[in-house]
Amino acid sequence: MTRRARRDQIIAGVDTHADTIHVAVIDKQGRDLDDREFPTTPAGYRAALAFIAEHGRLDRIGVEGTSSYGAGFTRAARQGGHTVVEVTRPDRAERRRVGKSDPIDAYLAARAAQSGRANSVPKNEQIEPLRALHNARHSAVKARTAAINQIHSMLITAPEPIRTKYAVLKLVSMLTALAKTPTSSSESHDEGVLIALSAIAQRVHFLDTQIAGLTARLDAVVTATNPGLRAAHGIGPDTAAQLLITAGSHPDRLTTEAALAALCGVAPVPASSGKTIRHRLSRGGDRGANNALYRIALVRMSTEPRTRAYVARQRAAGRS
Q1: pLDDT tens track for 107-125
Q2: Which conformational region is residue 79 in: left (phi greater than 0), alpha (psi within -120 to 50 degrees), or beta?
Q3: 69/223 Cα distance (integer angstroms)
Q4: What's the fold here for domain 3-122?
């Protein structure tokens, strides 16, 4: 390879998998230069970047799955000062036309980056701890709700002595009583139901402890990341985390307040026709962020004076 060729601008594409990545390099005219497979290890990522650098002056790298199988390579490339763009999977028409293999997918990723079709910025790595904590807490809350519903369902059909004793109690008292219920080795029907109820109640108590710990940790991370957001009235750790996750997942879309509103599904959508001028609610956007804003609005409508005054003015004007 000549010294002039090494100075030419190149674009790389990466097809990612659990154990390997396939790297392809093209020139600025879109001509294939070379491709090679590397392991998904730190040494493999360094070798892949060195392989790309051998072919010229790197402009950008198109990577499939920057937040899944391609996360490790994306991190290594960005730490090396390279521009990385997210590449979506080729559409079905393209698949039928050119076929499917790791080298083909890598070259398609490179051409998507070259043409500008792939221009999305990869998700912000700083939100990944938030996402992990938020998802863990969310799954624990869902499991707790499912366990409580299971207890209520079992009590409906439980033997009369058990139903009479526990169904009338408040939730917290019922869970405490069931969790502490002594069991025997009897194989009677009543004893089997009681053992099951006690086990589920103990699970709820375990999940309560887990949720409290995850919430405290989530609160600490959210406050360290954006203390102003967490300090705002009506925004708790969970809703703040969801908004930060949404913002970090789509950094290229947050150019204005209107763009943020559209991303969260709260921007009015024009639905006019002829002389009728009207708007409708958006049904798109990030539904997690939409739900977070809804919960924030409910809290502020109940407890924040300025929000309450605004709602009163809107209702007085005939808007609901």
Answers
A1: 999 998 988 887 777 777 7
A2: alpha
A3: 30
A4: Nucleotidyltransferase; domain 5 (3.30.420)
